[in-house]
Specification:
Elements: E1 2-6, H1 24-43, E2 48-53, H2 56-62, E3 71-73, H3 92-100, E4 107-110, E5 114-116, H4 122-130, E6 134-137, H5 139-146, H6 148-159, E7 168-175, H7 177-196, H8 206-219, E8 226-227, E9 234-236, E10 257-259, H9 264-269, H10 277-303
Parallel strand pairs: 1-2, 1-4, 2-3, 6-8, 9-10
Antiparallel strand pairs: 4-7, 5-10, 6-7
Length: about 300
């Protein structure tokens, strides 16, 4: 199994999210730093991570510590509308075509701001051997936030059929190259309609199209696609406010991969002996406690801030 992650470079668009940095270079450097941490933790399991980008030289110049990680440049051709939210994330849709051409029997596309926090589970090894595709079903996170009826309406607008309203997280999808070929074909069937009316959807990004394409494959009985979240292969945890009821961090202690979209800086600063297992969760629990405490203090200061009444 080989993992791939995308770091798309476009300074002119709203392409980077959930990170606070001083400038565009430092934002990309942060994504690259996270990718290197993920690469290290996967390598501990004899797995590899390859960075995909549209500007290899740009990334290599930011790799100031000369960390050894493979970077492949892709000549992207997808016409993504200017001004769309999560602009760079949409190029994951073209990465599906790249993965369809790989010679490796099983591949995965993941976000860079995650870590491999536990050993390779038997379930994942069996899935790789059986060559079964997987995605991360986060319907229980998106439906409470936006309303299940909204998700269903949006998907039915693209799927041209009734929808169950399931939602795929953009941070993990895996399978054989043949699976990614079929997924890419489904994407091609709906991407033009999505791009022509993207402002009408509750969500803009690769998750919208990928969720529809996966459901089409399931409806057409083209593939049996497993939920990697239900198998504890991947979990997403927000240290920021959520619109859904989130499980406590201890619910992810046994997961293989942990996605921390609000904690890129934290990931980038971890030492090598803090990246896995009990050491990681001990460090992250302390970090969470401090973050919650700072938020409480900040909210109290705002609540009790004196107001100035001006009189004439």
């Amino acid at each position: 199994m080989i993992f791939f992650t995308l770091i798309h470079i476009c300074a002119d668009e709203q392409s980077l999210h959930n990170s606070r940095t001083n400038n565009f270079d430092s934002q990309i450097q942060l994504y690259l730093a996270c990718a290197k941490q993920l690469h290290y933790t996967l390598r501990e399991q004899n797995l590899d991570l390859v960075v995909l980008t549209n500007d290899k030289n740009y990334l290599q110049n930011l790799n100031t510590d000369d960390y050894k990680i493979e970077i492949i440049e892709i000549a992207f051709t997808l016409k993504v509308p200017s001004g769309i939210k999560f602009y760079s994330a949409h190029f994951k849709l073209e990465v599906f075509q790249f993965l369809a051409l790989q010679q490796h029997p099983y591949v995965a596309l993941v976000d860079s701001d995650m870590l491999c926090v536990n050993s390779l589970p038997e379930s994942l090894q069996n899935i790789i051997d059986l060559k079964m595709p997987m995605y991360y079903d986060i319907t229980d996170q998106t439906a409470p936030a936006y309303g299940h009826h909204v998700i269903i309406a949006d998907k039915e607008r693209l799927i041209k059929n009734k929808s169950a309203g399931t939602w795929a997280g953009g941070e993990f999808i895996s399978g054989t190259p043949a699976f990614f070929h079929d997924l890419s074909e489904q994407v091609k069937n709906i991407q033009d309609q999505y791009f022509s009316s993207f402002s009408l959807f509750h969500h803009q990004g690769d998750e919208m199209i990928t969720s529809v394409a996966i459901e089409k494959l399931i409806i057409n009985r083209k593939h049996t696609i497993l939920d990697a979240g239900a198998l504890s292969i991947i979990g997403r945890f927000w240290s920021a406010h959520t619109l859904h009821v989130q499980k406590p961090i201890k619910a992810y202690y046994n997961h293989f991969l942990l996605h921390l979209p609000a904690d890129k800086v934290f990931i980038s600063k971890l030492k090598k002996d803090q990246l896995k297992g009990k050491a990681f969760f001990k460090k992250y629990t302390v970090y969470l406690s401090k973050k919650i405490y700072r938020k409480l203090i900040r909210n109290m200061l705002i609540k009790f801030r004196p107001t100035t009444n001006s009189t004439k």
